[in-house]
Design brief:
It contains 4 helices and 6 strands. It has 144 residues and is of the alpha+beta class. It is globular. It starts with a strand and ends with a helix.
Length: 144
């Protein structure tokens, strides 16, 4: 799972006249912060199992540290067991390619398929991005 978190930097404007590097407003993090050297993505085996009990609190601390207002989680099989934590109880099922959406601690969350899985099963990255944007827009209207 990867988290794309919008922090205090505000929305990333995408007007043709103005270029804003994605890192100016967004942060990327794997669900599991520790992985073997040279390994991209989340770990497996004993290293993953050792982090399982701490993943949710580590992510909450990271979200608090950067002042995240919006979280887009691209998930695969790494969503579980973290996704079953009571912290995520406010999230409700959402239509594919999203899995869940909602507001937790004042933050808008959209949990969707990992891009690798979505490209194999879904309508494609552009449609996925449009669906994520629409979900966030609905949450913004609901959460004020």
């Amino acid at each position: 799972m990867a988290l794309l978190m919008q922090g205090r930097g505000g929305a990333l404007r995408t007007t043709p006249e103005v270029f804003h590097p994605y890192g100016a407003a967004y942060r990327w993090a794997n669900l599991y912060p520790l992985a073997p050297v040279g390994h991209s993505g989340n770990p497996s085996g004993a290293l993953r199992e050792a982090q399982d009990p701490h993943v949710v609190e580590l992510q909450r601390a990271k979200l608090d540290m950067i002042g995240a207002r919006t979280v887009v989680a691209f998930v695969g099989p790494y969503w579980w067991p973290a996704g079953s934590d009571p912290f995520f109880a406010p999230l409700r099922r959402a239509g594919r390619p999203m899995s869940f959406a909602g507001v937790i601690d004042g933050r808008r969350w959209v949990v969707g398929w990992h891009p690798k899985g979505a490209s194999l099963r879904g309508p494609g990255p552009i449609v996925d991005a449009e669906l994520i944007e629409a979900s966030l827009g609905r949450l913004a209207r609901v959460s004020g």
